[in-house]
Write a structure and sequence with these properties.
Length: about 160
């Protein structure tokens, strides 16, 4: 998945993200340190609490500008329990595109309080149309296209993970 930002948006890519304190929610311990991904990115456990259900994901952390620019581009599959998180140094409006992204994704925009602001579901592979947050966000989470609807994940649900 590639993303496009104004030049200022690319300047700061690390730091605190939504849900930056490790938490345990119904069998999911956010912030559990995991082995480095095949792509060489740091991985962590991320939890999404949606109503009475908690969903656990192993996410790669795209911290740097080059990591964020590449995102999930050229990947041909994404397991249901995997994803990628894009933390921002400061909350801001975010805009992504799907150029060079082979698979559809659900792009989840997460506010600084850990709540989901909005979801762009089943984004179109290879599209250069902008996919945007509806308010400033602290992080963006990408999951397999259609998974948020399948799991009932929606705006207002809580995302937690730990940024180191």
């Amino acid at each position: 998945m590639t993303m496009m930002f104004a030049a200022a948006a690319l300047a700061s890519c690390s730091g605190l993200s939504a849900g930056s304190n490790a938490t345990k929610a119904k069998g999911c311990t956010a912030g559990t340190t995991l082995a480095t991904s095949e792509a060489g990115l740091e991985q962590t456990r991320l939890c999404v609490v949606s109503g009475s259900r908690t969903h656990s994901f192993t996410v790669e952390i795209a911290r740097t500008s080059p990591q964020q620019a590449r995102g999930l581009m050229f990947r041909t599959e994404l397991a249901d329990d995997k994803g990628m998180i894009f933390p921002f140094g400061e909350p801001r409006m975010a805009s992504f595109w799907m150029k060079n992204t082979v698979i559809p994704l659900d792009i989840i925009f997460v506010r600084a309080d850990g709540k989901i602001e909005n979801i762009a579901a089943n984004t179109v592979p290879y599209s250069t149309d902008p996919v945007e947050s509806t308010a400033p966000v602290a992080a963006v989470l990408e999951l397999r296209g259609g998974l948020t609807a399948q799991l009932g994940i929606k705006p207002g649900d809580t995302v937690s993970w730990t940024a180191r």
